[in-house]
Amino acid sequence: MNRIDNELLLDLSRRLIQLVTFDPPGNELPAAQLVASVLADFGIDSELQSIGDNRANVVARIKGNGNRPALIFSAHLDTISVNEADWSVPPFGALVKDGRLYGRGATDMKAALAAMVVAGIAVKQSNEPLQGDLILAFSAAENSSCLGARHMLDSGILDGSGALLVSEPTSLDVFIAEKGALWLQATAKGEYGHNAFSENRTGDRGSAILRMAEFLCRVRDLKVESPVHPLLGSPTVNVGLIQGGISWPLIAPQCTASIDIRTVPGLTADDVIAQFRTIAGPHVSIDLVDVKPPVDTPAEHPFVDLCVASVVAERGAQPLVTGVSYYSDAAVLAPALNVPMVIIGPGEVGKSGSVDEYVELDKLEASARIFADIALRYLA
Q1: Are residue 185 and residue 228 in the same domain, yes or no?
Q2: Can you tell me the mean pLDDT for 44-48?
Q3: Is 146 left (phi over 0), alpha (psi -120 to 50) or beta?
Q4: Tens of pLDDT along 117-150?
Q5: End position of a domain, from candidates 233, 258, 292
Q6: How far apart are CA 339 and CA 164, in angstroms?
Q7: Are 303 and 139 in contact (CB under 8 A)?
Q8: In this structure, are 70 and 184 located in the same domain?
Q9: 105: closest CA among 84, 128, 77?
Q10: CA-to-CA distance for 288 and 183, rounded, in angstroms?
Q11: How many domains does the chain have?
Q12: Which end of the chain has the smaller Cβ count within 10 Å, N or C?
């Protein structure tokens, strides 16, 4: 694909990085408006979908003749937060240095989003007759349980799609499976009292915090029973947040723990919840907060073959075809739309949300060519 505007690609990547879109609170609307404005400059209309105060998705459709289902390009506008004191470069300066673009979102995933925008423009300008639509679906609130993607589904704007390409970080390898994320909240109940008058209390002393601590020791030793996936391996468990108690002298009446379980195909939310309830004990309850299912596209699927062929054509070598432990908007979109999912992105795996986050410019430019080539192979 030789129509990629690399100057536009870098400029848009930098302008997106310069916008602060931490989720929470999000504030993705200016980024969505920027993308819409750039698309409009090239005759591509888009729709802003409000999902809350100063928050919006942006969705555009490059029309085909309707003989084939649409292809979705998926990326998100939000990022995680940043501690600027830890960085050696300004996190919103979008500094270009030694072949890299630095800044929050450079890897995850504003530069990749820009590559999809520019690839979409290239497809539009190619004047190739498209057999189906190319949908540019850029979401807000991916970090907030994929709320933007859920809104897209509810709106029906993605109906009629046949495949999903996500540009989360892969180092330009081809990821065809991702773990799911199951979020549970454990709540321990205690017996409120004052430590000064607790001489007769024994064991956990009626403290919700101690009861939670005992439960979490059992969580530490829990091996979630699950099939072992050939690309994703086994589930993992993390206790990410604990809250409880009132003050130093008061026996805690309640304590909560937020638990993240990365799931694999074949393991249901009900299976996991049942295993946690088995070890909960009499004072701890387990509640489901959110579930994002794992996604698994068969390696032999024609869409996988097509994506691999595009990477080979650009890179001259066979990419690694594998799975990844993070989740993406595909967790919401792919099952609901019943479409195959492939992830290809220029960002480095493991650099999402890192200090001095960056994307390599040669991979960024290559990704835009790959995205455009995939679209034309699938739609033209």
Answers
A1: yes
A2: 98
A3: left
A4: 999 999 999 999 999 999 999 999 999 899 999 9
A5: 292
A6: 7
A7: no
A8: no
A9: 77
A10: 6
A11: 2
A12: C
Question: Does residue 2 have a pLDDT over 70?
Answer: no
216 and 327 inside one domain: no
- On average, the pLDDT of the chain sits at 97
Residues 128 and 274 in one domain: no
Cis peptide before 30 (omega within 30 of 0): no
Which residue among 241, 262, 292 closes a domain?
A: 292
Number of residues written out for the chain:
380
Which residue in 228, 211, 232, 348 sits closest to 283, CA to CA? Answer: 211
55/41 Cα distance (integer angstroms)? 22
Instruction: Burial-class residue 97 by CB neighbours within 10 Å (0-12, 13-18, 19+).
Output: exposed
Pull the structure tokens for residue 279. 């070890």
- Give per-residue pLDDT as tens, 150-178: 999 999 999 999 999 999 999 999 999 99
**79-125 tens-digit pLDDT:** 999 999 999 999 999 999 999 999 999 999 999 999 999 999 999 99
Q: Is the pLDDT score of 1 beyond 80?
A: no
Do residue 38 and residue 59 come from a single domain? yes
